[in-house]
Design a protein that fits this description.
The protein is built from 15 helices and no strands. The protein starts with a helix and ends with a helix.
Length: 340
């Protein structure tokens, strides 16, 4: 995650000081982002900024950052989606990627794996982030209602992002580019598309990638908060010690991903698989082995008894089965090429 954040920061500075690449320069531009010493500098910068925010605590760092950055990013995405709708390839982008209802894909193992991976990664499920943040919430907070708002807004932002990216891809690059690497497509389609607007496009690119980096930073701090809070609670470390140790370890683990796009993609694939496994184990733990504690927590979460019963039923009988099936299909899709 820090590696891709580094790419985002690099694109921001490139747009700010050097301008945007032309369509014929797109491949060379992405290569410059993903190779060389700038990758390590971007990774290190991302982790250092993340560590600074987490060191300030949840309310003093994370909450202050999210309060002003996220509404600005959302507003900018809305503006960009309106602009993208005016492009010549807008309808083709919508039709090809957003409105192409192919029911056969519901039974495609790769589609199921990617869908589960996206859901668990985007909502940070299966890794303890929601649990960590919920532990800081006000006792009067209605967690079921907040969960619906979070998942709903996440879906809306995802659709808006598609309404920005896909029209630009179809207008300036064609369908083939999106099939190569979706992560890199963001760093090809948006900069080259905005290049057609001249100075206006450059300004928009600076704002977009600057705020995108800040949005990524808010996600990164939530990722870092989990091991930091665990070290504090388990071993009694102070926050700065836990932050320095966790950040240093994460930087070392991320070096292979910084050196190789292939390793980066593999780490992304298997990380999402382990997120599903974590979600499955959480359901089993909370639904079957910590039922008394779970009932006490539900009773104190300011929700109606009907909602609490529904949540418990889903946690015990629906979620484990659904996640288990998704996990099985995901593993099968990954090992199938090796078997055949």
């Amino acid at each position: 995650y820090a590696v891709v954040m580094g790419w985002t920061a690099d694109t921001f500075f490139h747009a700010l000081f050097l301008g945007l690449p032309k369509p014929e320069e797109a491949s060379a531009f992405v290569t410059s982002l993903s190779t060389g010493s700038s990758v390590f500098l971007g990774q290190l910068l991302s982790l250092v900024l993340t560590a600074v925010v987490v060191s300030a605590g949840v309310r003093g760092g994370i909450e202050k950052l999210a309060k002003w950055s996220m509404p600005m990013l959302f507003g900018l995405i809305v503006i960009l989606s309106i602009w993208a709708a005016t492009l010549p390839g807008a309808w083709a982008g919508y039709k090809e990627f957003l409105l192409d209802w192919n029911l056969d894909e519901l039974f495609n193992p790769k589609t199921i794996r990617l869908a589960f991976g996206q859901a668990f990664f985007s909502l940070s499920l299966g890794i303890g982030i929601m649990v960590a943040y919920a532990s800081y919430s006000n006792k009067k907070s209605q967690l079921p209602k907040e969960a619906l708002v979070i998942s709903g807004m996440d879906t809306i932002v995802g659709i808006l992002a598609g309404m920005v990216t896909f029209p630009i891809v179809m207008t300036f690059l064609g369908q083939g580019e999106i099939q190569k690497s979706f992560v890199q497509t963001l760093f090809i389609s948006l900069p080259t598309g905005l290049n057609s607007l001249g100075l206006t496009g450059q300004i928009v690119a600076v704002l977009f990638f600057g705020l995108a980096f800040i949005a990524a930073l808010t996600s990164a701090v939530s990722l870092l908060e989990v091991p930091v809070s665990s070290l504090i609670d388990r071993f009694g470390w102070n926050r700065n010690q836990a932050v320095i140790f966790s950040t240093s370890l994460i930087f070392l683990i991320g070096i292979p991903a910084a050196l190789s796009d292939k390793i980066l993609e593999d780490m992304d694939t298997y990380t999402k698989l382990f997120l599903q496994l974590g979600g499955f184990l959480i359901c089993i733990l909370m639904g079957w082995f910590s039922t008394r504690k779970y009932d006490e927590d539900l009773a104190g979460c300011n929700s109606k008894i009907g909602v609490r019963r529904y949540l418990k039923f889903m946690l015990r009988w629906v979620s484990p089965i659904a996640i288990g099936v998704g996990l099985y299909v995901s593993v099968f899709d990954l090992v199938k090429p090796a078997i055949t």
